[in-house]
Amino acid sequence: MNTVAETASGSQSVNLEIRTRNLVKNYGHVRALDNVSIDIPSGTIFGLLGPNGAGKTTLIKVLTALIKPDGGQATVAGYDILASPFEVKKRIGWVAAEVILDDDLTAWENLWLQAKLQNLKDWTDTARKLLDYLGLSDRADSKVKEFSTGMRKKLEIALALLHNPSVIFMDEPTIGLDPGTRRMLWDLIRGINRNYGVTVLLTTHYIEEADALCERLAIISRGKIVAAGTPSELKSRVKGELIEVETEGVTDPSPLRLLEGVREVTGEGNRMIIRVDSSEETLPLILSKMNTMSIKKINVQKPSLETVFLDITGTRIDEEQQMDIRKFYANIRRARQ
Ligand SMILES: Nc1ncnc2c1ncn2[C@@H]1O[C@H](COP(=O)(O)OP(=O)(O)OP(=O)(O)O)[C@@H](O)[C@H]1O
Ligand SMILES: [Mg+2]
């Protein structure tokens, strides 16, 4: 009983696993969600891409009925989060950014605990099948503290799938993982999406991950959805290439605007973003109009999700990253494992 939405053409309808309209969440004077409206079709891997503090975890908390929004509406797996939070909770799984496993228990005991917490009956068959699917059957009776990071991630996914949810939420599932484990996890997420038919909503601030793994994306910045679509739709929105130039002192952009091949110049102070048709052709012209001694940094961006973010917000995703003490400790814990 999922929400049905008309597509833009009106000729087809798609099942929506998640639909939000104008969600707002405030923490004191901080607006963590600012009129968030997204549609997530059933059966897709959907990515929420944004820097630290963008509102990703807050959106997951609202959609998993852990916290209430201050405004707006949302349905998850066909149920309204405010009117039917328990129906929502029955149909969702959550893989948190923090470690949630009990290290002193075995894999099987962790599954048992999860079943108790969720009041599940007849869970053992599903648990056995999940361990088998994830390649953990022969480690069912090992204590989790003996597990590698990849094995722990697999077990966290088994816990999230134990009650056969129709959607799972993964909050930065690959944060702090080495590239090999990250790729293993991408394959696993694709596999459970296909084989278990579950819709996946994952958050990430890794551009590469959003591009490689997600069929559809929403880019979130300071609580607002600033763009949404498939990775290729988003990339095709950015016309041309972007040249970022950082200078000592303030540079007058007016002469650059007159150059052939320059579409626009934005930015302020000592940092400009120049949109051009072709950086190879136009960069020499730009340099000829500038005091090259004053240039501190030049960076050329070909069309990519990074350019989409830069184009829309005027900043890079990694520039907005700040020290996050919670993640710092999560990484240390993982490193110790
Ligand atoms: N419990 C809280 N109390 C007060 N402010 C909060 C709380 N939770 C989040 N915020 C604020 O809301 C904003 C969004 O935070 P949120 O955790 O949703 O971001 P995020 O996109 O998940 O970031 P990250 O990538 O660092 O996990 C931030 O400004 C944050 O400081
Ligand atoms: Mg977060």
TrEMBL record:
Q: What is the lineage of its organism?
A: Archaea, Methanobacteriati, Thermoplasmatota, Thermoplasmata, Candidatus Sysuiplasmatales
Asked if the keyword Hydrolase belongs to this entry, the reply reads no
Query: What is the name of this protein?
Result: ATP-binding cassette domain-containing protein
Q: Write one Pfam family the protein is assigned to.
A: ABC_tran
Q: Which organism is it from?
A: Candidatus Sysuiplasma superficiale
Q: Which UniProt keywords apply?
A: ATP-binding, Nucleotide-binding, Transport
* GO annotation terms (biological process): daunorubicin transport; doxorubicin transport
| Span of domain ABC transporter | 18-247
Q: List the Gene Ontology MF annotations in alphabetical order.
A: ATP binding; ATP hydrolysis activity
